[in-house]
Task: structure prediction
Amino acid sequence: MSVENKISKHAIIIISLNVIALILLLYLITSYYFSKRFLPNTWIGDVYCTGRSVESVAYDLKEKIEIPDVRISWFTEGYPDSYISADQFGYVYDLQGAIYEAIGSQDPFSWPRALFTKQVLHLDPVITYDSEALSRVFDTLDRVRDEKSEDPIYEIRLSEEEGYYVYDTHARRLDTDRVLNDLNENLAVGKFNLQLDPTYFYDAPYSEKEIQAQDYYADLSEFLFTDLVYDMGAEQIAFDKSIMSFLVVTENGMPVRDENGDFSLDDEAIEKWVDDLCASYDTYGLDREFKSSTGRDVIIPAFYSTYGTEIDRDSELNYLMDIMYSDELRDGEPDIHVPKYTHEATVRGLNDIGDTFIEVDLSDQYLYFYKNGELILETDIVSGDIPKGWTTPRGVFSVYSKSTDAWLYGRDYIDFVSYWIAYFNAYGIHDSDWRDEWGGEIYTYDGSHGCINMDKDPARIVYENADIGTPVIVYDY
Result:
């Protein structure tokens, strides 16, 4: 081999070694570069991290992270979801530490391979917050505040609407300690929702005193829930605990028991109940308010009225006094009681006129007839001649007789009518074929002797539809 060939071969070796050394040097320099920066083709979420520093990536991630309000769903009717702002208890992510840890987990010498493989990193940020501040905010939430405002209670109480009832707050108590604990566990792993379910609620135990109160209320309920029903016609009054407020009670309102263990009744309370019943239903001998067909509220005087309701107060008082301790009142069989009346209207109930009645408006000289709530007749009339002193009595009456083809006799007249409907003494409703017109001001100069005059056809309708006992309401305004 020539000297020249030997030199050429040696040069190639030296050049090759230099190239290898240069490549190795570049590899080591690049590896050192990526020891403090992210490898090529690296992403965290949608943030591109290749060749970037911890601070740079942390800044971008912080800009993208939005910490939502904490939401608690209570699973309790009447309580909307509660929300707590993260600022209220200093909730933050420590991203920088997690990013340092992510870079530290990289192999900087693997950067060539990373050029061809996409790598998506998932961070585990360090979460910090003030748990005591969270607890304070938690205690201000409506559901928590309401829960902690009252310890479990079992009490027998009395109200005017319900009578005796139990106030019991032992059931479905909210386990606030568990809610707060689970809330902390969720926040520690970045979960901002807590959905409560039935397992977060419990029934608080009863004390021995409360158990005794339960037994007492069982006895009281057995006494208060009777089978008695007052049949008032349109209304039925059941003698349940809302009615049975006839007990002798202590200063705190609790019923008193006698030496035999029976509950004592207050005679004055029974008497008051009967008086209140009479005040609600009695109409006989009293002025009454009536809503006219024209919408006016008119007062109908009681002076001439013959129609109405009057409960026999003494009979009802004696009845209740006798029956209150009766075993029959609590044997499970309904005891329907219809009160006795000194005056009984055709219709029983708070509205003792009902929905079938004759309405006579003397001011407008008009008659309305309602049957089963339907207006079946309205017509002009002529009432008593006021200038001659033949006024038509105002009041509430009822039909007591009716006939056809009747003769009406008076001191200075004899009239034949086809239809006669009597409602008060000698006063009645009838046709008047001696007239050509009705209504208007006729009654002021050519009125009747006090009866209600009308044309023959409407008189026939009244006759055919009015039964004995049908109320007749006569008023003016």
